[in-house]
Amino acid sequence: MTQLPVTILGFGMMGRARAVAYENITRYFKDSPYQPTLCQAFVLPNEADAAAKVGWVPETDMRKAIFNEQTDYIDICLPNAMHYAAVLSAIEAGKHVFCEKPLAVSIQEGREMVAAAKARPELLNSVHFTYRRVPANIYARKLVADNRFGKLLESHSYYNQHWGGPGVGFGWRFDRAAGGGTVGDLGSHAIDMLYFVTGKRPERLCALQYAHVKERSGRKIEVDDASYVMFYLPDGAIGTLSCTRNAHGSENSQGYELYFEHGAIRWRYDDLDYLEIYDANDPQRGWTRVLCSAAGYAYDNQAEAPLVGYRDLLLFGCYENMRAIAKMEPIAPIATFQDAYEVDRTIEAIRLSAENQTWINLDEIPQ
Questions:
Q1: Per mean pLDDT, which range of 120-129, 158-167, 314-323 is the poorest?
Q2: Residue 306, SS3?
Q3: CA dist 245 to 166, 224, 344, 353, 355, Å?
Q4: β-pairing, 73-76 with 2-9?
Q5: Most Cβ neighbours (<10 Å): which of 46, 175, 235, 350?
Q6: Is the Cβ–Cβ distance between 89 and 66 less than 8 Å?
């Protein structure tokens, strides 16, 4: 098995969690073409001692960490506004790149990142839309691809958290340039999941965005903490998306409901191992809960425990990247930079719609 030296950028929760995922890939998946090994990590100066204590080799200069000749793969777990410089540097250095979502905080940056990746097709370009790794969502994708219930009529998605209400101080997620608001931070997952499951993206939309809290830590807030979107999809379907940081009692509540000509499917993260299915041709059965992680719909090389959790999803995502580098057939497709840029285009359309209080055609956003 080939060793793959990995450099992680960022010592936050995601960086530390992904380090654990890489360590466990070959313990779970014996067919992994690579054994990732943590080579080095970019951390802030005040994090260096803590990083060293957990076995990292810390580097406080980001470009030095990226251009380290001993590493072949860069995992970017940095605040959104830092993705652009890190991605372009990693591609310049000839490294495989795995980047947190959203890809960029502006569509101009996103286009440059996509172009850089296309110029180096031998390198991995992958974006961490982790809910593509949920077996229930992979099964939902299969049901749609098999045309199980006919034409899609409506899609309704939500992503709610509770941590951003009054009394919470300023942080980078409340900076428009750095964080991108609720749609960039939360709704990007729902936008990608719509495409992953149904193969459809919004064509025309109208959005409302609102900041309930106008000031944090003495700073004026210009980014929303709640968003609501209505949109048209191809082939006559319609949909909605809502996301907020003000949902008391919601730690990480998200999900979707899809209504078709002859049935419906729904999924929610709070019950992530199950996909709920309604067959309109057999209405007496009602809604059926299918335990997807135990039924072999995806990642059945995992440990014997039938249920999966968030750490498993990180593991599955890193494993898919190993397969992609080796040109192996994916269990479920990764999100490429191009996929992530399409999400960014939708985010930009939502921003413009909310600012101008009008409908926006996605064709108006550069491809």
A1: 158-167
A2: coil
A3: 10, 9, 20, 20, 20
A4: parallel
A5: 350
A6: yes
According to DSSP H, which parts of the chain are helical?
A: 13-28, 48-53, 62-66, 83-92, 107-118, 135-145, 176-179, 181-182, 188-198, 310-325, 337-356
Res. 96: pLDDT tops 90: yes
The CA R_g of the chain, rounded to the nearest whole Å, is 20
Q: Which amino acid is at 24?
A: N
Per-residue pLDDT, 298: 79
Q: 99 pairs with which residues across the strands?
A: 76, 127
The answer to whether the beta carbons of residues 332 and 132 sit under 8 Å apart is yes
Taking the C-alpha atoms of 136, 19, 72 and 115 in order, what is their torsion angle to the nearest 10 degrees? 50
Query: What would the pLDDT profile of 70-95 be if each residue is shown by its tens digit?
Result: 999 999 999 888 999 999 999 999 99
Band of residue 305 on the pLDDT scale cut at 50, 70, 90:
low
Mean pLDDT of 113-141: 97
Rounded Cα distance, 61 and 66, in Å:
9
Take residue 241 and report the two structure tokens written for it.
């998306």
